[in-house]
Amino acid sequence: MDKITFTLNGKPVTLTTDGNRMLQWVLRTDLGLTGTKYGCGVGLCGACTVLVDRKMTRACVTPVKNVAGKNVLTIEGLAADGKLHPLQEAFARHDAFQCGFCTPGMIMSAAALLMENPKATREDIIAHMDGNLCRCGAHTRILDAIEDAAKTWKGETRP
Amino acid sequence: MRVPDYENPDLHDPTAPDTFDRREFLQRLGGGIIIIVTLSDPAAWAARAGGGGGRSYPEDFNAYLRIGEDGRVACFTGKIEMGQGPITSLAQMLADELDVTMDVVDMVMGDTDRCPWDMGTFGSMTTRFFGPPLRAAGAEARRVLMELASESLKVPVENLATRNGVVYEKGREKNQVSYGQLAKGKTIERRLKVKPETKSVAEFQIIGKSYTRTDALEKVTGRAKFAGDLREEGMLYARLLRPPAHGAKLKSADTSDAEKIEGVKVVRDGDMIAVLHPLPDMAQKALEAIKAEFDVPAPRVNDKTIFDHLVKNAGQGKPVRQGGNLAEGEKLAKTLVEATYLNSYVAHAPMEPHTALARMDGDKITVWASTQTPFPLKSQIASALKMPEGNVRVLTPFVGGGFGGKSANQQAIEAARLAKLTGRPVQVAWSRQEEFFYDTFRPAAVVKIKSGLEPSGKIVLWDYNVYFAGSRGADQFYAIPHHRTLATGEWRGEGGPHPFATGAWRAPGNNTNTFARECHMDIMAAKAGMDPIEFRLKNLEDPKIIRVLKAAAEKFGWKPAKSPSGRGFGVAVGMDSGTWVAHIAEVEVNRETGAVRVKRVVCAQDMGLVINPQGAIIQMEGCIMMGLGYALTEEIHFEGGRVLDTDFGTYVIPRFSWLPKIETMLVGANEPPAQGGGEPAIICMGAVIANAIYDAVGARLFQLPMTPERVKAALAAQPVG
Ligand code: FES
Ligand code: FES
Fold first, then answer.
1. What order do you get walking across the sheet with B482-488 strand by strand?
2. What is the dihedral of CA B211, B217, B223, B226, to 10 degrees?
3. Does A143 touch chain B (CB under 8 A)?
4. Which of A53, A96, A157, B130 has its CA at 20 to 30 Å from residue B579's CA atom?
5. What's the confidence (pLDDT) of residue B140?
């Protein structure tokens, strides 16, 4: 058992658990944050994407001990002060989902890109998002939504 | 719309009558105005949907509307939301007929206790078959409200009108009463006897307009609950021991190491060995600690030999349609064209794997499942657990994609069995590997065609036999005097010549049949020395198909040319679920690598009356994107009953970098009735790309998917010139 402390959606959390457990299950089970999805468990679909220190991270292949002392942001923490994040707004406005299962991972991946590169072009977006799978085929609208959000959002957000 | 408000309150109160008692049902819904919806033709519906285990719709229980005292309108339907959008489009139909705004409609979907029996959500049938009675119910409800208002406002019904949930006196709008006020303290039950007047196209306020998805807020915030997101007090996560191959028999299993893990529960019941733990990853660890041995039967067939194997075991073909005389056609033909088309097994691969949660309460069970078929699941659970159906309740949270693959319900039965055996709430969530292993794949299939042409380019002979894909989409629509279409072999189920279970996959059968037919058309067009669109128009008579084909050609900017023109343009047309589609694509082929890049796809679709144009277009875009997969990369690799694909590393589905420029158009969108929209636009994707490849490089592909290796092989076999 390891004692692990990190910042989750702006608040400190401390857990006592096996540090080799994957962040995905710790978030979904121990911490009750089910917006981070399981789609493959081996880093090949992006459904579990979260940000660790503002970097796109697949929670299914990230041992929880690796985030000790770091800032973890999940889909639940993206909307600050009760206001939707520009990416969330853009996804809703563009109907950028069908079943919506891939959506949290899509939004978190896009957030990582825009934090790093607010001026991302469509090509940048495609290259960055290529590891996020959507079986429903919402791709056109997801790209439109990200492009649109990039216009209104300058990359600032916690953490 | 507030789905969860209706889902949550009685999650912990699974009460279900033994038989579907109507009085009791109405009481359970509480006060307000309830309208009972009758399907116009339930028998035809049941036949179209392929049975339903001998059950058909109770004559007058298909959906219920309730207008509450707060003026909110609840719509109860056994249909489910898996991304195809009925949560919005059904609400639109109801809101329009009832004259309320969209935001007061609450959809209650797929709850077997509160929604009337439904066969399942598949076959692009929700709008076509459920829409008309739903609209009729809305219209009737509006009439009831006007009658009630007439009494309370003391104004004759003719002088009343409705708007935004209010009945008012024409010319004296201040004299008004809201639906909520009218519903106060009343339970009024009305059965639709005569068909009430629904609105005409010109009167629509909401139908025919684009609405963004009403479940958007929940889905972009991560709050939307899928089956795996539900939590119950004391819940255990189960992992089950799986065989390495279909047909394998368990010889021995040593669970002693698994049992040593703290908190693990091991359950053995007949053929099932499961390990359960309050943490899902610890359950997985326990599973990995089991030492099991299986007898695996020697493989008889693999992904290469499957096609011969299928044809050998096909049996007698069943006629789909025939006319004229084949021998006569053969005599008239100047040119005969014979070809065989193949496609491999294809996975559904929804992003959400099969998941379910089950909880026993005394002798009752509640199951939350990722399923397209909540009502059939209820029966399956009752029989698996040997309990009366009335003790089983199935609830359907949001479903993370189905495409026909979430109808078998194995995971939910596993969860139910384990909940009963352990007395604890149990979640079964399949891994991606299990998802690939237990999928009811789209069947591998073979199509053999022999056709004949007159020198003028008129088709005079069509002899068509499809093996194992089924007859949907096999019935060709060209004007051919001498034709016969046969469908041979079962396309779904277990056993038979398939090494594993097969089933419905988005537009079942039609992807296979349209690929074969439309490739064959192109080959004939080339033989006749004609432009492929011109050739099709010469052989078509149906005005609707001609209209969509011309619309697509115009949008694309088609200039007639004989194929291969080197431009990389392909065309294909087809029909599914009452909807006509025409696709034109542009591709680029890398001759060195065999890689195909689809640059542009134009799709024109005639689906009759369109409820939500944006929703319809989104489905078309999804079909086109998903269709790139079965056209280019998707095929299950297997050796006997061993499924070799376990993840998205080898089973490659479409990605952002594949995205072509997609241009869609709806044709005849104001012309009732409404037809299906979730599947048609996928059916042409194999042929339109194959034909474009041929147009680009002169190589003809006869097998899906058109992998780089197959493209290279075709290039080698058929050099340009
Ligand atoms: S679940 Fe993590 S990448 Fe698929
Ligand atoms: S919206 Fe269904 S997987 Fe992307």
1. B317-323, B482-488, B459-467, B445-453, B335-343, B703-704
2. 10
3. yes
4. A96
5. 80
Residue B488: φ, ψ to 5°: -125, 130
Q: What's B22-211's CATH class?
A: alpha beta
Residue A95 beta carbon below 6 angstroms from any ligand 2 atom: no
| Axis crossing angle, helix B532-539 with helix B543-556, rounded to the nearest 10 | 170
| Nearest residue, CB atoms, B621 vs list A30, A33, A137 | A137
Is the Cβ of B655 closer than 8 Å to some Cβ of chain A?
yes
The reply to whether residue A92 touches residue B352, judged by beta carbons under 8 angstroms, is: no
> Computed over its alpha carbons, how large is the radius of gyration of chain B?
27
Q: Does B652 touch chain A (CB under 8 A)?
A: no
C-alpha distance from residue B404 to each of B434, B436, B439, B504 (Å): 17, 14, 10, 5
Q: Is the dihedral of CA B691, B628, B127, A88 positive or negative?
A: negative
Residue A93: list chain B partners with CB under 8 A: 212
- In words, the CATH class of domain B227-296+354-429 is alpha beta
A126 lines ligand 2 (CB under 6 A): no
Task: Map out the domains of chain A as residue ranges.
Answer: 2-76, 86-152
Bridge partners for B67 per DSSP: B33, B73
Size of interface A-B (CB pairs under 8 A): 175
Confidence of residue B13 (pLDDT cuts 50, 70, 90): very low
Q: Are B83 and B401 in contact (CB under 8 A)?
A: yes
State how far residue B281 is from chain A, nearest Cα, in angstroms.
Answer: 7
What is the dotted CATH code of the domain comprising A86-152? 1.10.150.120
* B464-476 residues labelled b (16+ CB within 10 A) or e (exposed): bbbbbbbbbbbeb
Q: Report how far ligand 1's centroid is from the alpha carbon of A158 (Å).
A: 24
Determine if ligand 2 sits within 6 Å of the CB of residue A136: yes
Q: CB–CB of B676/B124 below 8 Å?
A: yes
CATH tag for B306-345+440-716 (out of 3.40.50.720, 3.30.420.40, 3.30.365.10, 3.40.50.1820) = 3.30.365.10
What global pTM score does this model have? 0.91
pLDDT at B562 over 80: yes
Q: Tokens at residue B501, please? A: 């279970």
Instruction: Look up residue B264 and give its two tokens.
Output: 């693990």
A99 lines ligand 2 (CB under 6 A): yes
Domain ranges of chain B: 22-211, 227-296+354-429, 306-345+440-716
A80 CB near a chain B CB, below 8 Å?
no
* Option in B222, B228, B657 nearest A75 (CB): B222
Nearest by CB: B622 against A28, A76, A137: A137
The ipTM value here is 0.97
Which H or E run contains B23?
Answer: helix B22-29
Domains B22-211 and B227-296+354-429 belong to one CATH topology? yes
Please tell me the distance from the alpha carbon of residue B50 to that of residue B509, in angstroms, as a whole number.
14
The CATH number assigned to the domain with range A2-76 reads 3.10.20.30
Q: Which residues contact B23 (CB under 8 A, 6 or more apart)?
A: none
Is residue B397 within 8 angstroms of chain A, CB to CB? no
Chain segment B310-355, per-residue pLDDT in tens: 999 988 889 999 999 999 999 999 999 999 999 999 999 999 999 9
Kindly state if the Cβ of A135 falls inside 6 Å of ligand 2.
Answer: yes
Angle between helices A103-116 and A86-93 (to 10 degrees): 130
